[in-house]
Specification:
With 321 residues, the chain is mainly alpha-helical. The relative contact order is 0.19. 48% of the residues lie in helices and 4% in strands.
């Protein structure tokens, strides 16, 4: 199954390898916040290295950037590049997530990371290996760094590490603060708002209150000041972090929904019309997401964004001590 990302209101949900650059893990703000937090915790050598690498292999100016022009530096701007790059390299779509079925027992992650599509844990390891290779081309190392910046964010979005035959929650229509789901693609039975989109973007933007990524990152840095030193010292373990995100999806995403969502028997799906019209079945649950659900999710999302940034810094610091 390919658990991809939601198209936001007015944009088509695209699944499989045909993902559009309009679909985001954590949205523009979330990914940029992760990068800002990471950059603030880089050691001097790592800071110099990432600046040199990004300058030596710049982003193609012809690439369409969904998040548009911004005033962020090259490191933070790179945080959303991987989603844009998917439009011209669709074979990278599977690198952004890992479909661990709901109810799976923690153990070997390999069965959920098929060689044909790869997955986020393997993609991070592969891109870190390119960064370590001083013989790799300047462009290859710059692109690898951009992938790593982005994938650390995606890894900490719980719905990028779970599957319920619903494309990572894309096939779970929800009413979000009174905005009822509207069908965006009749053939594929896709709707917005949906559970993935709400976690990726809608709730983040709602509690960001219009702050810039830098302002939001500053707020998170203060809130989690006591925990950050321990997160910086953690062993780099993307597999364990994937399992932790998977568990958060169970406990804090599906588990907190007003209407219980049953665990599906895993089957291959490529659209929300599959698995006996899963999105239509989920639509009939009439999930209502409002203040209570938002309040329970806010702390989880803010902690995951912060962990992603701090762990990204730790990984890059380990490369360039």
């Amino acid at each position: 199954m390919k658990g991809n990302w939601p198209a936001l209101a007015g944009l088509m949900l695209v699944v499989g390898v045909g993902l559009a650059p309009s679909a985001w893990g954590w949205g523009c703000t979330g990914h940029q916040v992760v990068a800002v937090l990471a950059e603030e915790h880089l050691n001097p050598h790592a800071r110099d290295m990432v600046a040199q690498i990004l300058a030596a292999g710049p982003i193609d100016p012809a690439l369409r950037r969904f998040c548009g022009a911004n005033t962020l530096d090259a490191f933070a701007d790179s945080s959303t590049w991987a989603d844009d790059q998917r439009s011209i390299q669709p074979d990278t779509a599977g690198w952004h997530f890992i479909d661990i079925p709901r109810g799976a027992a923690k153990g070997d992650i390999a069965p959920y990371c098929p060689p044909s599509t790869s997955c986020i844990t393997r993609a991070i390891e592969d891109q870190l290996a390119i960064l370590r290779n001083i013989n790799a081309s300047a462009q290859a190392r710059a692109d690898a760094l951009r992938y790593v910046i982005h994938f650390f964010g995606d890894l900490h979005q719980p719905l990028h590490a779970t599957s319920n035959n619903d494309l990572g929650g894309n096939c779970v229509p929800v009413t979000f603060f009174g905005a009822a789901p509207q069908e965006k693609n009749v053939a594929k039975e896709s709707y917005a708002p949906n559970l993935h989109g709400v976690w990726d973007t809608d709730m983040v933007e709602r509690f960001a209150h219009g702050q810039t990524p830098q302002q939001f990152a500053n707020e998170l840095g203060i809130r989690f000041k006591a925990q950050i030193p321990a997160w910086l010292r953690e062993r780099i373990d993307v597999v364990s972090w994937a399992w932790a995100s998977h568990q958060l999806a169970e406990d804090s995403v599906y588990g907190a929904l007003p209407r219980k969502v049953a665990i599906e028997t895993p089957v291959e799906v490529s659209a929300c019309s599959d698995d006996q019209h899963i999105s239509t079945r989920m639509l009939n649950l009439n999930e209502q997401i409002g203040a209570d659900y938002h309040a329970s999710a806010e702390g989880v999302i803010q902690e995951q964004l912060t962990k992603a940034g701090i762990r990204l810094a730790a990984a890059l610091n380990a490369l360039w001590q």
